[in-house]
Amino acid sequence: MIPFRFFTLISVIVSFSFSQERENLDVRLFRSINSHQSPANGFFEVIDKTSLPTFAVIPAGLLLYGYASDTEESFDVGVTLGVAQAAALLLVTGTKAVVDRRRPYEALDGVKAKHIWSAGGGSFPSGHAAMAFTIATTLSLHSPKPEIMIPSFAWACFVAYARVYLGLHYPSDIVGGAVLGTGLAFLTWSVREDIRRLTDKVLGRSGSNLMRISPFPSGTEFVRVSIKL
Question: In angstroms, rounded to a whole number, what is the distance separating the alpha carbons of residues 42 and 203?
């Protein structure tokens, strides 16, 4: 049921994106955001330039920290996040090839475009938005606390907004990417125990009792569960 609703929503966004492309709300909203681009405001340029390295640093950091500190929980979250990101990258790449939507700076006149070097493939969906929301959703599922969720999703929204601000995507592109990334994060998280068991087999982890923290709170406290491998 969830995958069906997920792909139905993506189809609706695609249909909306291509309806009267030069006159629809999507284009008008794009122009409204892009027209406010200013050389004096470098915030969104910095956000965009640092987004690609951040996509790699976060899962790598969890893996390295988990390995160095012998914290299997952090390591497993890093693996789960990596799987979700890989799935998002594959689906984004495939969707871009099928939809083949031209970027706004290619299809429209008077677009203020920057960072064209980071624009690969078609416009729909936004790979940056997909990756950012995959990360924000996975981290929030792992640790559903305001101090994690608020900055994670704020950062993801800034990354997505920057792609429109810099003239690289339409608003519907980033909505599609955000929906795709969020949906894949939930789907991957739902099979995280299968991913963990496969990781255990690959790494030969066995014969110990692990104290793991439940990703969802019970009341106001987190539930610790002892798992015997």
Answer: 44
Write out pLDDT tens, residues 178-204: 999 999 999 999 999 999 999 888 888
Q: Which residue's entry shows tokens 């099928």?
A: 98
Q: Taking the domains of the chain in order of start, what are their residue ranges?
A: 2-14+30-197+204-228
Distance CA 195, CA 51 (A): 26
Cis, bond preceding 217 (omega within 30 deg of 0): no
SS (H, E, C) 89-127: HHHHHHHHHHHCCCCHHHHCCCCCCCCHHHCCCCCCCCH
pLDDT of residue 226: 33
Q: 1.20.144, 3.40.630, 2.90.10, 1.10.3470: which CATH number matches 2-14+30-197+204-228?
A: 1.20.144
- List, in order, residues 6 or more apart from 78 with CB less than 8 Å away: 59, 60, 61, 62, 63, 65, 66
